[in-house]
Design brief:
The complex is a heterotrimer of chains A (854), B (301) and C (273). In chain A, strands 22-24-23-29-21-27 form a 6-stranded mixed beta sheet. Chain A is built from 25 helices and 29 strands. Chain B has a two-stranded antiparallel ribbon. Chain B has 11 helices and 2 strands; from the N terminus they run H-H-E-E-H-H-H-H-H-H-H-H-H. In chain B, helix 2 (40-64) crosses helix 7, helix 3 (95-120) runs antiparallel to helix 5 (138-161) and helix 8 (202-230) packs across helix 10. The radius of gyration of chain B is 20 Å and the shape is flat. The chains are: A alpha/beta (854), B mainly alpha (301), C alpha+beta (273). Chains in contact: A-C, B-C. Chains B and C meet through helix 1, helix 3, helix 5, helix 7 and helix 8 of B and helix 2, helix 3, strand 6 and helix 7 of C. The complex binds ligand MGD (2 copies), iron/sulfur cluster (5 copies) and molybdenum atom. Residues 212, 249-250 of chain A line the site of molybdenum atom.
Chain lengths: 854, 301, 273
């Protein structure tokens, strides 16, 4: 089921595999407001109103719950759900659901617009501390945080069980509600539900594929959570052909979250030290980060990963006494993500801006405001291969043409540094399946164009030189930074550019090594918390196991798991939580879907007290790396008062979760609730048909007078739902496609997809010019009138939707208005991603006033 | 979904002038072979018309080519195997290829006939030529010229029907139509020249020309009817499409009026006044152009 | 052994990678008609067509491959299809273009592909009129005709065609025509048994129209829905009849004229006497 994604257009090469599956008889379903090129290939297309996904998914969840309740105790789904998910755990008695508070969970504080999650926890036995001496190591402190085991009712009957709470939460999410709120016919919904259910058994699995069609909402994370809940109930997680595939965006965007270009995380998904949390010392940081979820999951190893990270940063200077340099490491003080950063920039709080591989003048939401914000900077460095809209905002932007900004008044000094293109640098891509694949340098970049790794390395070396003599204590970090990646002569012998850093040396540091011997580590199980090991990102350990081997460069495939193709993190494991591909007793669910299983005769590699081999080991005929303690028997009972996965049973596949169980109900970790709940998009033409609470109570908003104003619910001036998305022919803000005439002529002009019904209502004919407007701006586009768009009936009211591919800008060989002049800065509370997938506006025939927002 | 092949004014004029040249030469040859001495004058006019038009046709064909300087490829083709490095080009199933030989052949014989006129009228005094024309009978090269003439007039129609253009490919009769049109326009051309020269002894020739022209026009109508009957799509396009104005003016101007004007001479024997004859001739010529225009353009709208 | 391509439109996503790969491998210019002026001098694209996602419109001297988009939707959207077809030269076994060319500038190689010898073409454009599928196209820029060559240089170096290499879903498959026909028939059977009753092969039958096409298709609807001729025939089939009728007409006209000329001739001479 492809939902919240237009895979055929946005992942056209990867779409090869669904097509191969279709040739072998697999059913493909596409749930999308529009009929796209993916829908054209799908067996079923279910049209839903943009933003109503959680109603559709909630109804699928209810459909599955009803089926499971009717099944015998030993059925596949009951075995999977009661053993592998937290269905049986009992939730805190004073938890209140959205059914009780008409759209809110217990613990909501209207003033701070935030939840306190204590009421969402489990009912627990009393805690058995794992350590009662005086704590010596960081792990000793972690051991003191182990909570009591949750109470549970395996029969799933107790009303406080997660199972019953989830059942009550989605009781009203019926096929009728899907028709009422999503505007999708009941029989179409039921066809999708039947297909998914019938294809999720012992010997058949179904997968769900999504991308930003889900993420770009104020309830985006909860949409994804809903798919997680559904796949647990269908028994698809951890099994071959199952799971949820998050189709990532840019090439190696997965790499950019693994090795952390995000402001709030360190490499390997450790949280960035935060001045607002109890992160004063390294010990405080480690204890805070492991309390609640860490101590009784694999995250109990966090101390080893954190210390090794600081050791890799500061090398010899990082010692036990100075907390491995923790105090000198930067801490964040607020939400510094893209949108709030631009609000600060707009308010003149930011002096300098490094734009490397981004084109916010077109890709940024409320692009008019973002372009005006650029004018408030003192300096901006743009590294790119083309003179993008961002690089020339001061000279050619619509604001300059309309006179809103006058070039002489713009004080921003812009430095344009030409960037090398993909094949002019070496490095790795980490794709959407966590697979690292090395790519070699094929040619030197022309002239003084340089790669970003060259720029960052040489820029860093110059900054280090600047601070060399400083006696200021604050400069300790940059003075002691381990920063030597000079290439060996043979690495650059056939290139003109000799001062390119060695990407392999950087990869080796990411992989991690023993500090004293500088010997590369082969597995993250070897990390220590005593400073004797160093490693920038524990999840990649194993990619560079010795000085000669780069596993990311491997290229031997076997048409299935392909363990010899590249390196999948963690530990070359391709399917996470694959313990769930075996029954609780360790036998495969079926021959067809066999992946990992318990072989009781295999030598575990350990000896018993009398020296003979202990038998029993998790194996995988397909060459997959089991995602489990290799020698923990399926019948092992978790011990109390012990750290990490020894606390978890042999039937607990989800080793990164505190109880080894998948979370149907999420007691912690998400700021907007333990269960996905339908809220309307922040700008919606209709009242929330499901609850009194209109939109996400904890959404992030930035009201900036005259620049980022929102539309009221059902605002008559902006009755049309607008969605923005991509086309196969163009790439994001267009720099890498609109400059190439071969691609420009495939999709020459900005167009708006509009249904014949709305077109007739507005007197718009196919190919006419139309003007689309919101409070943030006004653009013009050509009209593409097509029945692939349709009006939706919501609660008896017609809601019209128009669609805008947003690739165009005023530069390049295909020009057009910037669609993001229309969108607003509003974000999801968990990851503050924008809601450009659905907002409201208006449309009329005609041309934009010359000198308008453009 | 068809691609544009841009056969425009050059090609239309080539079809039209080629037709006149062939028709005029045929009429001249008729007079030469079956007429008496008094018909020599009429023949000479035909010969004066034919060869120059053939030259013009050659130029039109070359100028219309995308690669004008490579027109020789129509006749010879480089061939490493042959001792002299090239060999003659001959491709029976390509009307354009064969048609270019028609043009060449007809050009040769029409030139021969014109040369004969020049020699006769002392415009050229060159002994060997004198001797040649005394030996080789005029009727022989006139007869051969006629064959190539008809070939030139007809192949352009065959060329059109052997395409994948839906309208043209429905019928096999366009060649026949073009041949008839060639005859009528050829005769008309001579009649026009005679009318303009206004010599006394041309009266009888004028009469016979008019009857010849009427016959040709009648055959032309017959051929047109058959073409429209066999090419129903084209018929619809011609009679009701943007070309309807051209079609109906062809019928009226190109055929009906001339026939009326010249009808009395066929029936009653009396000769219509000279300027009426000239008018009829001009109309027939216009008709000849219109029929080539509409046929060529109907498949390219 | 003829090489060719089997294009299975049932797994074509309309991504146009084939179109771009063809332009890239053959170094073809952006289509001049698509731009305000040459992109190199600051021209920008102006060819928004409003015809679904197809802004190319047709094959041309610079577009040797053209992906077309056909939207079939009921008003209530209960049944909807969006058909795509990546169209190019069929390399017909009986090629109208080749037969028509007066200078033999269009040749068929040992591998069965039909392509234009650029140094022989005289630009008469007769081949364009003779192609049943509207493929071969004239370039105003160089006065010659152009079309897909089945990547003549690649296939003679043992490589597959550029478009088949670029096609992400394997919708375009290059190979020996015999083997591709077996695969196409199997694929058709699978689709028809899965209820796709409108699926049909186009050009796969060696005894069918034009003795089969070396680039043939599995279509999801009638050929005319894709703008292709239902019954493509070799234009030269008209040649004999057309020539015969023309000769006949010449004789008829000649005799009629002769009779007319002589009869009056006798009386006229009497008058003169
Ligand atoms: N050709 C091409 N490929 C690309 C890119 C590109 O620019 N061009 N960009 C890359 C990047 S950076 C990314 S992040 C990915 C994005 O990949 P996708 O997420 O697939 O891309 P989009 O087209 O933005 O959105 C997908 C679909 O979501 C639908 N949609 C809109 N609102 C909703 C909704 O509320 N619910 C549901 N279920 N669907 C909705 C849209 O109609 C659209 O068809 O693509 C990557 N791949
Ligand atoms: N309305 C709306 N807005 C959106 C989205 C949406 O769906 N709707 N999608 C959002 C998403 S998912 C994304 S990813 C963003 C993308 O938005 P942006 O990242 O702003 O857009 P891109 O065009 O990818 O910009 C990348 C730039 O990097 C340059 N580049 C390429 N290679 C290199 C290199 O090696 N080094 C350097 N220094 N530069 C290089 C390219 O030329 C290009 O100019 O847009 C977001 N904006
Ligand atoms: S653009 Fe790049 S990432 Fe996207 S399909 Fe093509 S090759 Fe793959
Ligand atoms: S499709 Fe047209 S151009 Fe291609 S070989 Fe056949 S007749 Fe020639
Ligand atoms: S245009 Fe060129 S290839 Fe086509 S028929 Fe004329 S000479 Fe032959
Ligand atoms: S075979 Fe080669 S020339 Fe023909 S369409 Fe494909 S890429 Fe272009
Ligand atoms: S590359 Fe393949 S899938 Fe894409 S349009 Fe061409 S034939 Fe279709
Ligand atoms: Mo993205």
């Amino acid at each position: 089921m492809i939902m919240g994604s237009n895979m055929a257009e946005c992942h056209p090469v990867a779409f090869r595999w669904p097509m191969k599956a279709k040739e072998k008889g697999a059913k493909i379903m596409h749930v999308d407001p529009r009929f796209t090129r993916t829908s054209a290939m799908a067996d079923i297309h279910a049209p839903i109103r943009a933003g109503s996904d959680i109603v559709f998914l909630g109804a699928l969840i209810k459909y599955a719950l009803d089926k499971i309740e009717a099944e015998p105790l030993e059925s596949f789904h009951r075995l999977y759900v009661s053993n592998y998910t937290n269905a049986a755990l009992l939730v805190n008695k004073d938890y209140k659901d959205t059914e009780d508070l008409d759209g809110l969970f217990s613990g909501y504080n209207p003033e701070t617009k935030a939840y306190n999650a204590t009421t969402w926890g489990y009912q627990r036995k009393d805690a058995k501390a794992a350590f009662n001496g005086t704590p010596q190591t960081y792990s000793d402190f972690v051991a003191q945080t182990i909570a009591g085991r949750p109470l549970e009712d395996r029969s799933l009957k107790d009303l406080q069980t997660v199972f019953q709470i989830v059942k009550r939460h989605y009781a009203r999410y019926t096929p009728a509600m899907v028709e009422r709120v999503c505007g999708c016919a009941q029989d179409t919904f039921l066809k999708v539900a039947d297909t998914l259910w019938n294809n999720s058994t012992e010997d058949r699995t179904s997968s769900i594929v999504y991308a930003v069609g889900w993420t770009q909402h104020t309830i985006g994370v909860q949409m994804i959570r809903a798919a997680g809940v559904l796949q647990q109930l269908l028994g698809n997680i951890g099994r071959p052909g199952g799971g949820i595939l998050a189709l990532r965006g840019h090439a190696t965007i997965q790499g950019s979250t693994d090795i952390a270009t995000l402001y709030h995380s360190l490499p390997g998904y450790l949280n960035m030290p935060d001045a607002r949390k109890a992160h004063a010392t390294l010990k405080d940081y480690i204890v805070t980060e492991t309390t609640g979820s860490g101590a009784t999951s694999y995250w109990s190893n966090l101390p080893k990963f954190a210390v090794s990270y600081f050791k890799a940063q500061f090398g010899g200077a990082a010692t036990k006494d100075n907390d491995y340099g923790y105090d000198y490491h930067p801490k964040i003080t607020a939400d510094h993500s893209h949108m709030p950063m631009f609000v600060d920039m707009y308010n003149g709080k930011i002096k300098g801006f490094l734009v490397m591989g981004q084109n916010p003048a077109v890709g940024g939401q409320n692009a008019r405001m973002q372009r005006k914000a650029l004018a408030k900077l003192d300096w901006m460095v743009v590294r790119d291969s083309f003179i993008t809209e961002t690089a020339e905002f001061w000279k050619t932007s619509p604001e300059v043409q309309s006179g809103e900004l006058k070039t002489p008044d713009i004080k921003t000094e812009v430095f344009f540094l030409p960037a090398a293109a993909l094949a002019e640098m070496e490095g790795s891509f980490t794709n959407t399946q966590r697979l690292l694949q090395w790519h070699d340098k094929a040619a030197d970049p022309p002239g003084d164009a340089r790669s970003d790794s060259w720029f960052t390395y040489n820029f860093g070396k110059r900054l280090i030189a600047l601070y060399k003599g400083s006696s200021n204590k604050n400069d300790w970090a940059i003075q002691n930074l381990l920063f030597n990646y000079d290439s060996d002569p043979d690495e650059v012998k056939n290139w003109r550019i000799k001062d390119e850093p060695s990407s392999f040396k950087i990869l080796k540091e990411i992989n991690g090594y023993e500090w004293a011997t500088k010997k590369q580590l082969t597995s993250f199980t070897l990390f220590k918390e005593d400073g004797t090991t160093a490693g920038a990102s524990w999840i990649y350990t194993g990619v560079a196991p010795d000085d000669k081997t780069n596993n990311a460069a491997r290229r031997k495939g076997d048409d299935w798991i392909s363990p010899q193709w590249g390196f999948a993190w963690p530990a070359n494991r391709h399917i996470m939580y694959n313990r769930a591909s075996a029954r609780p007793d360790g036998k495969p669910w079926s021959e067809r879907k066999k992946l990992v299983l318990w072989d009781e005769n295999a030598d575990s590699g350990n000896k018993d007290a009398s020296g003979n081999a202990i038998l029993g080991r998790w194996v995988s005929p397909a060459g997959e790396v089991p995602d489990f303690n290799a020698t923990k028997s399926p019948f092992y009972h978790g011990k109390d008062g012990v750290l990490g996965w020894d606390y978890q049973d042999g039937t607990a596949p989800f080793i990164m979760r505190p109880d080894g169980k998948a979370l149907l109900f999420a007691p912690a970790g998400l700021v907007d609730g333990p269960l996905p709940t339908h809220y309307e998009p922040y700008e919606s033409p209709v009242q929330n048909p499901v609850y009194k609470q209109q939109s996400s109570p904890v959404a992030k908003t930035w009201l900036v007078q005259g620049a980022n104003e929102y539309h009221a619910v059902g605002d008559a001036n902006y009755p049309i739902v607008i969605s923005t998305y991509r086309l196969t022919e163009h790439h994001l803000s267009g720099t890498m496609s609109r400059w190439l005439p071969w691609l420009a002529e495939l999709m020459p002009e900005l167009f708006c997809e509009i249904s014949p019904e709305l077109a007739a209502e507005k007197g718009i004919k196919n190919t006419d010019y139309v003007v689309i407007s919101t409070k943030r701006g006004e653009i013009e586009a050509r009209a593409l009138v097509t029945r692939r768009m349709r009006p939706f009936m919501v609660d008896g009211k017609t809601v019209h939707q128009i669609g805008l591919p947003w690739h165009w800008g005023w530069q390049g060989s295909a020009k057009g208005d910037v669609v993001n002049n229309l969108s607003a800065l509003v974000g999801d509370p968990n990851v503050s991603i924008h809601e450009a997938k659905v907002f409201t506006g208006n449309i009329k025939a005609g041309r934009r006033a010359k000198g308008g927002s453009g | 979904m068809q691609q544009p092949f841009d056969w425009g004014i050059y090609i239309i004029s080539y079809f039209f002038l080629g037709g006149i040249a062939a028709g005029a030469y045929f009429t001249a040859a008729l007079a030469e072979i079956f007429g008496g001495k008094e018909d020599r004058e009429l023949a000479k006019v035909g010969y004066y018309i034919a060869f120059p038009l053939v030259l013009v046709c050659g130029v039109l064909l070359i100028v219309d080519l995308g690669q004008p300087l490579r027109f020789w490829e129509l006749f010879i083709t480089p061939n490493d195997a042959s001792p002299i490095g090239w060999s003659p080009m001959f491709k029976a199933q390509s009307p354009i290829q064969i048609g270019s030989y028609a043009l060449l052949g007809f050009g040769f014989f029409s030139f021969l006939s014109l040369l004969d006129v020049w020699v006769e009228e002392q415009r050229i005094r060159f002994a060997p030529l004198q001797k040649f024309y005394n030996v080789v009978p005029r009727k022989l090269y006139a007869a051969l010229g006629v064959l190539f003439g008809w070939f030139l007039a007809g192949y352009t129609g065959v060329l059109v029907t052997t395409t994948a253009q839906p309208m043209w490919a429905e019928t096999n009769w366009i060649g026949a139509l073009f041949v008839a049109s060639a005859a009528s326009t050829g005769a008309a051309a001579i009649a026009l020249v005679l009318a303009i020269r206004n010599r006394q002894q041309d009266a009888d020739a004028g009469l016979r020309l008019t009857r010849l022209d009427n016959t040709a026009l009648i055959v032309e109508i017959a051929m047109l009817v058959i073409v429209l009957a066999t090419a129903t799509t084209m018929a619809r396009a011609l009679t009701s499409g943007p070309l309807a104005i051209v079609f109906w003016s062809f019928i009226a101007v190109g055929i009906a009026v001339p026939l009326l004007l010249q009808a009395r001479s066929s029936l009653g024997g009396a000769e219509p006044p000279r300027n009426l004859l000239a008018l009829a001739a001009v109309l027939v010529l216009i008709g000849g152009f219109l029929v080539r225009y509409m046929i060529v353009m109907v498949a390219q709208m | 052994m003829s090489k060719g391509m089997f294009v299975d439109t049932s797994i074509c996503t309309g991504c146009k990678a084939c179109q771009v790969a063809c332009k890239e491998w053959n170094g073809l210019d952006p289509e001049p008609a698509h731009f305000s002026k040459a992109p190199a001098d600051g021209g920008y694209a102006t060819n928004f067509s409003g015809n679904s996602y197809d802004n190319t419109g047709k094959l041309s001297a610079t577009d040797w491959r053209h992906v077309m988009f056909i939207e079939q939707f009921s008003e209530d959207r209960r049944d909807g299809r969006w058909l795509f077809m990546s169209d190019s030269c069929k390399h017909c076994n009986q090629a109208g273009c080749m037969e028509a060319c007066p200078v033999n500038a269009i040749v068929r190689t040992d591998l069965g592909n039909v392509f234009v010898l650029q140094d022989k073409c005289i630009g008469c454009r007769y081949c364009i009129a003779a192609c049943p599928f509207g493929v071969i196209s004239y370039s105003q820029v160089d006065g010659k005709v152009h079309k897909c060559t089945l990547c003549d240089d690649r296939i003679h170096a043992g490589l597959a065609t550029a478009c088949s290499k670029a096609c992400p879903t394997g919708s375009i498959e290059f190979g020996d025509v015999e083997q591709l026909r077996v695969k196409a028939n199997a694929r058709l059977a699978a689709l028809q048994s899965a209820g796709q009753d409108k699926a049909q092969l186009y050009g796969a039958d060696p005894n069918g129209d034009l003795a089969g096409l070396n680039v043939f298709y599995l279509l999801m609807d009638k050929p005319s829905v894709y703008g292709q001729p239902e019954k493509p025939v070799l234009p030269q089939k008209n040649l004999q009849t057309s020539a015969a009728l023309t000769v006949g007409a010449a004789l008829l006209t000649g005799l009629a004229a002769l009779v007319n000329f002589r009869k009056r001739g006798a009386s006229a001479s009497a008058v003169n006497k």
